[in-house]
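INFO  loader      accepted 1 record
INFO  loader      residues=317
INFO  predictor   begin
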Amino acid sequence: MRMLVSGSRGLIGRALVARLEVDGHTVHRVARDPSAPGDAAFDFLARRVDLSGLPGGNLDRIDAVFHLSGERLTPLRWSEAKRERVRASRVVTTDLLARAIAAADMPPAVFVSASAIGYYGSRADELLDETSAPGSGFLAELCRAWEAAAAPAREAGIRVVSIRTGIVLSRANPLIGLQLPIFRAGFGAHLGSGRQWMSWIALDDVVEAILHVALTPAIDGPCNLSAPAPVRNAEFTDAFASCLERRSRFGIPRVVLEAAMGREVVEDIICASQRVLPRKLDETGFTFSHPKLDTALVAALAERPGTSPIPGEATSS
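INFO  predictor   done
INFO  writer      dumping C-alpha cells
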C-alpha cells in the first residue's frame, strides 16, 4: 500500500514510518521542506499542499493519509508567538491536507489526523470517553479547531478519524526524557497535588493503534489513544522511580511549577487531570501490548538515547 505521512520527523511519525516500511508499504512524506523525491510539501503562501512530487502528481495512488504534524507544546512557556506557531502547525496543516483529499479524483480511503486528550480539558475524577463533551482552556479550544479543520475531507465522504492521544511514554518525549536524570539522581517528585489523573500510552501501542484505526472501517470520528489504566500523577511518579530503583520522596508545589513554566502550561498540561478511557479501541478488539504502566515504563526507558523503537523489534539500553 502507499501511505502519505506528515510529521514523519516527530516522535510518533518516526515510529509509524519505521513500522510501515518494515511491513513493506511505500511511504511518501509531506513536510514544509521536502527532502526526497516522492515527497509532498505544505505551501503556506499558496494555501495548498504541493502534490507534484507524488506519483502522478496527485493523491490517486495513496491509500491512506496519516497527519501527525504539530509543533511541540513543551517545555517552553506559551508566548503569543508560540501559540500561533502551535495553532498553524496543527489547524492550518490539517485544513490544507483535508482540502487536498477532498479535491482528489480518487481520494484515499481514510484520513487519520492527530488530536490530543487535551480536547477534554482538566476534569478532576470524571471518566472520559469519545462521547464526553469538550473542556475549556487553550488546549481544549485548539483541539476542537484542530479536529474541525478536517471537515472538508469528511464532507467529501472520506472516513476521518481524529486520534486523541494521551501522554506517549518514550524517552524521546520531553515530558519523560527531561525528568530521567532527575529521577536517576533520586530527586523524582510528583507535580502539584499529585492527585491529577494521567492518561498515558506506550509508543509501540500508539503505532499499533494508528494502524488498527486505519484498517477498521467501524472507527470514525474521534478515537482515544490511551492505555486502559490511567493513573494519578503520584502513582506515575512512584512507578517511574521504581523502574530506576529509586524512591520518590518529594513533591513540587504548583506555585513553583507556575513560576517556572507559566500558569497556562501547568493548568493545561502539567497538572491537568484527564482520566481517559479508550472506548472505541476496546469495542473494536484492539489489544494493548503494554496495558499496565510498569511494563510500559520499562519499555520506554529501554530505548537507546536519541532513538525511538521500531515496533515489533527488540530494543536495548
